[in-house]
């Protein structure tokens, strides 16, 4: 990842943002550690999403390293096809991440509402969004490791962005000891606890596209072991005779992404191999990168989320975090993008 990462030790608490700098509108999501709110920055009037995470839950679930890893990665990443960080701060009981608001909802929500993606034009648009986001991450030496519909979110214009970098890792390190992720989208080398790199993300892309047109994943099982057994038993493949409404180029693209052996997988020779596949033969990547191509996805309302899920009462049953040693686990969490950009104006990040 080069020298683009900068620590935030120079930030002074007296000039850092705090909860009182925002007006909380209403909840728009929830996760394993807390809730997500739509908020407005009082000084600038900008609208953001604010993720609140309870420290007691993070400690109890032994997830401090995951949470801090995401914060540090978001501290230097910035790209139009990911969800970018603007502010990070903490109170005695909670951590807060203030990020881009993605009002179009996640891809899983789209599946629930629309069942599946039904046109090849729309599928290629989705794939291109993910490819461009992965291109940026991989060029910075990062493998995301948890690409799945829940971690792909639409903006108000129907473009898809990558989010949730908790288990992302340096692609050049030995990752054989790390096997976390979501089994239905995990590459075989990850499931089998083998060393893996950026090509694992391409398998996840293929699994998502497979699900988009069939409504199920390439390898199915009730748990991780069953999915692993399914992977080892037989190579999954889309049949062009059964899916004649999809072009051979589209099916070939997906089939090559979900190859079990990483050395046989599309993208093993880099992102240009993915972008250069015949399915994208006439695709204008430069125009698309500028978001100058109209999206086939049109969010129908301002906030696309499961109202029932976010309106349920949030109950915390763990002890409060009061001791100093536990608080030290979250040292260095502060982040203000305006200060960061000023301090790194002479530091070139990969565009």
TrEMBL record:
It catalyses: L-threonyl-[protein] + ATP = O-phospho-L-threonyl-[protein] + ADP + H(+); L-seryl-[protein] + ATP = O-phospho-L-seryl-[protein] + ADP + H(+). Gene3D superfamilies: Phosphorylase Kinase, domain 1, Transferase(Phosphotransferase) domain 1. ATP binds at residue 61. GO terms for molecular function: ATP binding; protein serine/threonine kinase activity. Pfam families: Pkinase. GO terms for biological process: intracellular signal transduction. This is non-specific serine/threonine protein kinase. It comes from Stentor coeruleus.
């Amino acid at each position: 990842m080069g020298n683009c990462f900068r620590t935030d030790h120079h930030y002074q608490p007296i000039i850092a943002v705090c909860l009182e700098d925002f007006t909380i509108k209403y909840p728009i999501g929830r996760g394993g550690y807390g809730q997500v709110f739509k908020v407005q920055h009082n000084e600038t009037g900008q609208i953001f999403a604010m993720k609140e995470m309870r420290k007691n839950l993070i400690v109890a679930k032994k997830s401090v390293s995951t949470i801090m890893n995401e914060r540090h990665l978001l501290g230097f990443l910035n790209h139009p096809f990911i969800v970018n960080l603007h502010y990070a701060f903490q109170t005695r009981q909670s951590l807060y991440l203030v990020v881009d608001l993605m009002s179009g909802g996640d891809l899983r929500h789209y599946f629930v509402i629309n069942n599946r993606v039904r046109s090849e034009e729309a599928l290629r648009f989705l794939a291109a969004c993910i490819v461009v986001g992965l291109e940026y991450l991989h060029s910075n030496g990062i493998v995301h490791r948890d690409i799945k519909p829940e971690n792909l979110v639409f903006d108000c214009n129907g473009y898809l962005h990558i989010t949730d970098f908790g288990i992302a890792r340096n692609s050049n390190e030995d990752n054989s000891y790390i096997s976390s992720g979501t089994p239905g989208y995990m590459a075989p080398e990850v499931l089998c606890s083998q060393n893996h790199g950026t090509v694992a993300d391409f398998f996840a892309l293929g699994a998502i596209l497979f699900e988009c047109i069939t409504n199920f994943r390439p390898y199915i099982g009730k748990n991780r072991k069953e999915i692993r057994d399914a992977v080892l038993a037989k190579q999954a493949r889309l049949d062009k005779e059964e899916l004649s409404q999809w072009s051979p180029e589209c099916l070939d693209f997906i089939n090559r992404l979900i190859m079990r052996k990483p050395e046989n997988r599309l993208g093993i020779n880099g992102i240009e191999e993915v972008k250069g596949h015949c399915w994208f033969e006439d695709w204008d990547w430069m125009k698309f990168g500028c978001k100058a191509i109209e999206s086939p996805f049109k969010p129908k309302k301002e906030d696309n989320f499961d109202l029932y899920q976010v309106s349920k009462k949030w109950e915390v049953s763990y002890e409060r975090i009061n001791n100093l040693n536990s608080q030290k686990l979250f040292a260095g969490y502060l982040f203000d993008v305006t200060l960061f950009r000023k301090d790194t104006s002479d530091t070139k990040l990969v565009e």
